[in-house]
Amino acid sequence: MAEGNPPTELTQSQMLHIAQQIAAGMVYLASQHFVHRDLATRNCLVGENLLVKIGDFGMSRDVKEDSELENKVLNHGGEKKA
């Protein structure tokens, strides 16, 4: 694909290529004993040359927030809990 403005429509061949990548990604996840549970277009990132990456962007977390919460739980009342 040339740089600049991307085409506004995908060809059937391009859509098939995207679908094949998604199917192959799901087969790979299954071979690794993972179940995605939320495969949807919102969880497919399409990059350059129509390379598709499957994610679960709704499950992403801010690591800093998680760490702060963990510290609050562990240090409740100034005592570290086991």
Automatic annotation (TrEMBL):
Gene Ontology biological process: cellular response to brain-derived neurotrophic factor stimulus; positive regulation of neuron projection development; positive regulation of phosphatidylinositol 3-kinase/protein kinase B signal transduction; trans-synaptic signaling by neuropeptide, modulating synaptic transmission
GO annotation, cellular component aspect: axon terminus; dendritic spine; plasma membrane; postsynaptic density; receptor complex
InterPro entries xrefs: Kinase-like_dom_sf (IPR011009), Prot_kinase_dom (IPR000719), RTK (IPR050122), Ser-Thr/Tyr_kinase_cat_dom (IPR001245), Tyr_kinase_AS (IPR008266)
PROSITE patterns xref list: PROTEIN_KINASE_DOM, PROTEIN_KINASE_TYR
Keyword vocabulary terms for this entry: ATP-binding, Nucleotide-binding, Receptor
PANTHER family in the cross-refs: BDNF_NT-3 GROWTH FACTORS RECEPTOR, TYROSINE-PROTEIN KINASE RECEPTOR
Protein name listed in UniProt: BDNF/NT-3 growth factors receptor
